[in-house]
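Support case: user asked for a sample of complex input and structure output to validate their parser. Sending the pair below.
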Amino acid sequence: MSGGVEMTAGTTSADTSPEAVMATMTRAARTAAAVLAQAPTAAKAAAIRAAAAAIRRQAEAILAANAADMAAADGLTPALKDRLLLTPARVEAMAAGLAAIAALPDPVGAVIAAWTTPNGLAFERVRVPLGVVGIVYESRPNVTADAGALAVMAGNAVILRGGSEAAASNAAIHACLVEGLAAAGLPTDAVQRVTCRDRAMVTAMLTAAGGIDVLIPRGGKGLVAHVLEHARVPVLAHLDGNNHVYVDAAADPAMAQAVVLDAKMRRTGVCGAMETLLVDRAYPAKAALLTALLDAGCEVRADAALLPLDLRLVPAQPLDWDTEYLDAVCAAAEVDGVAGAISHIAGHGSHHTDAVVTADLLVAERFIAEVDSAIVLHNASTQFADGGEFGFGGEIGIATGRLHARGPVALEGLTTYKNVVRGTGQVRG
Amino acid sequence: MSGGVEMTAGTTSADTSPEAVMATMTRAARTAAAVLAQAPTAAKAAAIRAAAAAIRRQAEAILAANAADMAAADGLTPALKDRLLLTPARVEAMAAGLAAIAALPDPVGAVIAAWTTPNGLAFERVRVPLGVVGIVYESRPNVTADAGALAVMAGNAVILRGGSEAAASNAAIHACLVEGLAAAGLPTDAVQRVTCRDRAMVTAMLTAAGGIDVLIPRGGKGLVAHVLEHARVPVLAHLDGNNHVYVDAAADPAMAQAVVLDAKMRRTGVCGAMETLLVDRAYPAKAALLTALLDAGCEVRADAALLPLDLRLVPAQPLDWDTEYLDAVCAAAEVDGVAGAISHIAGHGSHHTDAVVTADLLVAERFIAEVDSAIVLHNASTQFADGGEFGFGGEIGIATGRLHARGPVALEGLTTYKNVVRGTGQVRG
């Protein structure tokens, strides 16, 4: 667009303020997005496959960059260091992930709905890319590859702002994405990386209304809360995953135990992990269920009704019902049937993921209908809360807001639609 | 929810600050929304039909209230007075509109997508209500009826804040909606009206994150801009309808003239009206097209290329390309084919509604693909930009943002979805 040239000409070259840098990036992204929006599926897939090949070819350079990041990461907790670390297996998984994204069906151009109005107008709702996506993330360098590739496959341009602790790793991975775009003849500005480590660059992204169409924060609660509070751009995110498993009186005890143990203990640090166990007052195997959790190494903070069932149970404090531990800890409460569970979740849940275990289909359907969460499961572990597990072909994040995409956000969530009307000269008259 | 009672008990009765009043309203709305979300279609339709009956029965009281509003409306422009005015025919149209909404298919519970994952999880994406909708609007009292009924039919609770100039009219119509809810056994808090005329109540709505799920402003540009700038709640809206009609070289001149005249002159004050005419340099009947617009009483502000074609043409100034006149005025520019039109619209459009007139299907499809607007039309007037005309059964507004609903927002736009997973004891392991 010629406007970009004029605006650059009117700006002094000395203007390196975060706002000016971001404005330059978003203009370039908008121009690239217009090309990506029209790009054939084959070109987008070729770019992502070429990026995967580059990652495999550059694996040693990526690992060396990551080693430099790790060497400078003394202040990080062990959990964050593990997120930052790349290994040959993780680099290969990143490349394989890109190849999988390149094989996904292209959402762009799909006709979502179509009909003809009485006056002969042919109406179509057609899926189109969102435009310019901003990702603000921490620690895990694989987000650079995943998020960049998902955005491109959905026809968007993306601006990536990773944490400074992963700067060298992210730069090396970003270079592979750029190489892939160039190899496929697509504009390399479709995947831009914020290189300036000034936190004011994040603020410039949050306030880039008109320049960035949607922001997706990925990382700790501090980062997500900051983005949600300060963004003047729409945000897709989840702040908390305070997830519940409700074990109904009619649950099969073996199934209940397996689901609860998996939901809490498979991986305690993921956003789909169970944080509060709700047990029906009439469930016959309460002690066995709690004992199994305790035996698995989980600290269980129980309400007064459950506390006598095992000496290792700890009394729950009021805040426990609202806490996302992301650790081998959970709260546990006795509730009066499915109505009690629904009421507890309405008061304390975070609208992320909640599950019911029961053989009673009426109970299950009531739970599904009345629990107001992005993901509700019956007789399955909350740890399935993942776009890949649901068959979305990956995810760029999980959203607990109510607008646009809810739950795992993947290719479809990175698109919007256009209303297309084809007539034969109709006027409204 | 018992939480409401406790919080009320903890608040002194003297707290009548806008924030406290809005918090009380949003709590009541949330409780009502939980009931509406589970309400059968028949109950929602019965409430709306009963409201329509009440409006017909109370027509004289509504007209008397409107007369009081009109008597106090000295400061308003004639256009705003016309929007405020109710007549017996307008009251009947309002009732008929409600009856039409009650007959619409219920979007809630629809399964949008469904599949089974390889490990046997049955996945469903199910449409559910948005929750609590806030509407901030001006002048037209019929919005009270339309917006209230659409929100209820989609299973939501709604908080209505009309302009103080229409307070008596809105109160009379709101009473009919409440009567309809009560008659159908639904909670009357599902449609609440902000009665306090303090503008701080609008601010309290804009900042009611968690209390209001989405805000829909309807009214003048000043109101919409204020909401967009200050809202901490997601907004569905359009600020501008700077709409274009591009007349291609291959357009049938009679069709082009009919479409352009309708797009500009049918009703000049609607958001779907054409504001800029783009004419292909190679279009053979340029003078006749401009003359027809001028003869119809439209002021036409033309660029240098078109200016010599009719003595009545006025030279366009740079700002004209970005102006929504909402009047019998338009800008007109010559462009180089469809590429020139696409480029002009990319630089000046507002992503609302744009149309192409051409007999060349390749040109039409390129325009449809590359013009990035909520509504794109081929060989039809931009004045069709209306949910009712598209077959949505009315609209609560038109959105030009990219997330959630784009274009006319009706029942579907007032819903979100839930990811439902039914298993047989699956764990992720």
